[in-house]
Design brief:
heterodimer; A: about 290 residues; mainly alpha; MetI-like fold; 13 helices; about 85% helix; flat; B: about 425 residues; alpha/beta; Rossmann fold; CBS-domain; 2 domains; six-stranded mixed β-sheet; four-stranded antiparallel β-sheet; 18 helices; about 40% helix; elongated
Chain lengths: ~290, ~425
Amino acid sequence: MDKIIDLGKYIEIGINALERNFSFLWSAIDDGISWTVETMNDAFLATPFWIIILIVAAFAYYLNAGKQSFTKAGLKKGIGIASFIILGFLLIYLMGYWEETLQTTTLVLVATIIALILGIPIGIWTARSTWADTIIRPILDFMQTMPAFVYLIPAIFFFSVGNTPGVIATIIFSLPPAVRLTKLGIQNVPGEVIEAGYAFGATEKQILYKIQLPLAMPSILAGVNQVILLSLSMVVIASMVGAKGLGSIVYRSIQQNDVALGFESGLGIVILAIILDRITQSIGSKNK
Amino acid sequence: MEQETRKVKIEVKDLTLIFGKNKDQALKMLNKGYSKSEILEKTKCTIGVNKANFEVYEGEIFVVMGLSGSGKSTLIRCLNRLRKATDGQVLLNGHDITKENNNELLETRRTEMSMVFQNFALLPHRTILENAAFGLEIRGEDKETRLAKAQTALETVGLQGYEHQYPAELSGGMQQRVGLARALANDPEVLLMDEAFSALDPLIKSDMQDELLAIQEKVQKTIVFITHDLDEAIKLGDRIVIMKDGIIEQIGNAEEIMTNPASEYVEAFVEKVDRKTIITAESLMFTKPIVVQYEKDGPEVALRKMRSASLEVLPVVDKHRKFLGFVWLNDLIELTKNKIPKIDTKIKTEVHSVQKEFTVEDMLPLISGMRSPLAVVDESNGRLQGLVSQTSIIIEATKYDKEEISDLQEQAKELFKWTK
């Protein structure tokens, strides 16, 4: 069939114009993200693997056991996740994917942090303003349903290959739940509690910081968890534009039709996903 | 009325609140006297509060009572401007709240008015102590001061020992005590209580009402209390407002509303109430009883007074009208036979006396085993104010119908002729 409306062409023209006219912006973003990723990566790699494993395990143990850390009850609560972390990471190390796992973790963390820095304020904004919600909601739908591969094209265009387009595509894909769950959490704060705040003479700012955000925290943390898991699910796709890590090994195993490589690196992603999920979930439950 | 001389704390003048977009037109129609349904049809606006006028006196518990949708919750929210009135004034200490700017309003809410909510509205992530200190935190008091004040407020409501627990760990009644402590901690002049006890089960509710009355005795705040429960209104309210469809149907104390309902709507409420707990000695007593004057009247005079009224017992008072006791017909006859000129020896002093505020329920146990009426005495100077016959107490305790009671009272009057 003939093309009657060439929408794609206009988008392309627009993207081109953006690329040319704001090149200083793109290179600044590229430099910032690359620098952050590399610095974090170097710091991880400079640390002996067993120290990282122990720190993560101890952190997860504390999150689950809390104040009972040094009692039997605490041991019961925290020992499961701590031993899973030690065994899981040890397996990854012994399979020889430690460096890639750290690279993936870095990408996930950087993408998550940026997604949260953008997503939580946008969520607050949409919760408090109907018209902001009206505008932003379809954009979020678009971001979530547009196949993630598509983002890679302009991302390469702006940032060429490497970690940055991977991180950008990951952010776009994982941002919506941060916005949505923040908004949901704030809107679910009982009206009476907000009213109580106003009745005691609270300003808008006090309502937000002393009532809405603390009460929305479980929902916001559920959003954080979702952002991390969605970021992790993007690692393979991000590797197609040159992002390093476990994803690139999976990608290579597909190209080489290598079952062993595919299974091992896939398993690495699963282990990392379970660990990140359990840790963020226990942050959430501790907050309740 | 004596209350008129008390200081007015809150004055509400022509307060009107209209919901909807076309408020101006709706207000104009309302002022021209159109009905609620006509206004709704024309402007799609509903009238939340329709020209409310009342005064709340300092130190009283002022109850606003009505069913859901009667506009009572909207009305209380106009008092601290959680809802902005469409028209009219709310004067707190003579100062119009509806005209305050944002900063003045915050200051009023922070220092002069606190609110207690139906579902407690506590912050689940804060301890009891931190919750009680919330209002003080909002107005920027430093941590040490606010926690100390919150601690005192928690002690006032009987919650010491629970400071470091969380709201979810407490029962409903205790959570509402926290709500009350939070309001008291601010030390406001006015407490707004929006269906504060409605979410509690009946026993706890009754406890909390007693507690509130006890606390009020101590703190003497001006309290505006919203409820849909007439029994609660009667128990707590110094004065009661009855609202329907945004209109104030009647204002008065429990007694006035019970005995003289202003409309069928009020009457419908009143019928369900246990009259024993409302009808007081004041409304039952005969205010000008025939008395024997202790210093002046001897047995002969007393006997004469008794015979002329066909009574067999009369109250004895001194020259200041202080109540001394009762004297009986047969004792007087005995005195005259023995030619004793004084009635001293025969005054029965071991009798119950009551005060004007005593209810029928209070008086019922006092009449058993007694033959004399109950003397109503002024608490401060012991003066006799009137007599309540046993018959009228029994009638009030057993019969509920107003006309039957007045018939029987008439008959009782005929029979005993207490009045001159």
